[in-house]
Amino acid sequence: MNKVYTRTGDFLSENESLGAGLPFEADTGILSDETEIGNKTVHNRLACQAMEGCDGTPDGRPDELTKRRYRRLSEGGAGIIWFEATACMEEGRANPRQLWINDNNLDAFCRIVADIKESAMKANGYEPLLIMQDTHSGRYSKPRGTPAPLIAYNNPIFEKDRPIPKDRIVSDEYLDTVKENLIYAAGLAEKAGFDGVDIKCCHRYLNSELLSAFEREGRYGGSFENRTRLLREAVQGAIENTGSDFIVSSRLNVYDGFPYPYGFGVKADGSLDFDPTEPAKLISLLYEYGVRLLNITMGNPYFNPHVNRPFAMGPYDPIEHPLMGVKRVLDGTAALKAAVPDMKLICSALSFLGVAAPNVAAGYMRNGCFDYAGFGRTIFAYPSFANDIMKNGGLDAKKCCICCSKCTELMRAGGTPGCVVRDPVYAELYRKMKENK
């Protein structure tokens, strides 16, 4: 069984034996460097990825577990906190407790932003860059607890012989409305005090699904221009409708891991090989619009999670060693950085590396391959990871995420995900879930 690395020596040995060739930098000091994004200072190169807690109130406000999670993260020292998926429309919520920003609850978002920044300042002497993820869940919409998919097109890889009814395929006019709501939510994020917004385009949620809508007709399908329309126009609208200091970004799926014509960032020869041509073209256009930061990811956590978050234990046996999945994401990010070098990029897929993660991230950064190291599942298990890297030079193996997928198991069961292994709050929730099965 594959295991997360608890000793750097084990990583170095396996990295060599597999021929993965991941760089390893003993000196992780580069991760503490300050950088600038627009007029904003980022106090280090460590980022908390958007990890949804599914623990908001029915009307979309942050609840007590939400506040607890961000208080711990704010004290943990990361230079960037990518605030979790926050719906821009009620029917686009992924679950009944997903956060949903709107005029009626803006005050609650103002309070949690203020709390995050105050807690970080008290603990660390600086505020994190705080980016809100602005989303419509599309095929994964479940606002009342039962599936209510809104899709760009039927995908036989997912649907097989049970296509989703045609009335759930969204019209061009509906997508126009989604665009306006994404833009409006970006304005609300600015009013709440966030430093920026992420027009979410990843993991097969609605915006991301459109990137592979090669066979869809109309203004949002077929050509590259049409398939990228929702993302591009929402980004442009958000930039035009917010202040010059407000950061507009995206968590961007650059490779789906599905064959053409159902996957973005793949070659058209029927293989699953990554093709950076269209992703690089899209990133270049976003840079022209004024975007200066992107958060890069791959795969689909619902269908091929080994691609986007290589795991030690999970719902199936992956077709590759997890280290090779990490390599795909990091090397793919590096290829895009080479194509559009002025765009600052956050990487993903570091958690499986365990204690070797800071060293590998530092190695890639020394080579100019990306700008920030993004940690996802790790932040559930180890909210203080950033401070430990910067102050102690590395991670404590006894605090690291073990990539067991139990946080995901909690979420799939309709619960509130967190680290079952390291956090007693979620260990108890997991125990109760198992009892009630």
Number of helices: 16
**Helix and strand string, N-terminal first?**
HEEEHEEHEHHEHHHEHEHHEHEHHHH
What CATH calls the topology of the largest domain is TIM Barrel
Q: Overall pLDDT, averaged?
A: 97
Tell me the CATH superfamily of the largest domain: Aldolase class I
Please outline the helices and strands.
Elements: H1 8-18, E1 35-37, E2 40-42, E3 46-48, H2 64-75, E4 80-87, E5 99-100, H3 106-124, E6 129-135, H4 156-159, H5 172-192, E7 196-199, H6 206-210, H7 224-227, H8 229-240, E8 247-253, H9 277-289, E9 293-297, H10 305-308, H11 322-339, E10 344-347, H12 357-366, E11 372-375, H13 378-381, H14 385-392, H15 406-412, H16 424-436
Describe the structure.
The chain has 437 residues and is of the alpha/beta class. It has two domains: 8-403, Alpha-Beta Barrel (TIM Barrel), CATH 3.20.20; 405-437, no CATH class. It is 38% helix and 11% strand. The protein has 16 helices and eleven strands. It has helices spanning 8-18, 64-75, 106-124, 156-159, 172-192, 206-210, 224-227, 229-240, 277-289, 305-308, 322-339, 357-366, 378-381, 385-392, 406-412, 424-436; strands spanning 35-37, 40-42, 46-48, 80-87, 99-100, 129-135, 196-199, 247-253, 293-297, 344-347, 372-375. The strands form two sheets. An eight-stranded parallel beta barrel has the order 3-4-6-7-8-9-10-11, surrounded by four helices. A two-stranded antiparallel sheet has the order 1-2. Strand 3 (46-48), helix 2 (64-75) and strand 4 (80-87) form a beta-alpha-beta unit. Helix 2 packs parallel to helix 3 and helix 3 (106-124) crosses helix 5 (172-192). The two termini are 27 Å apart.
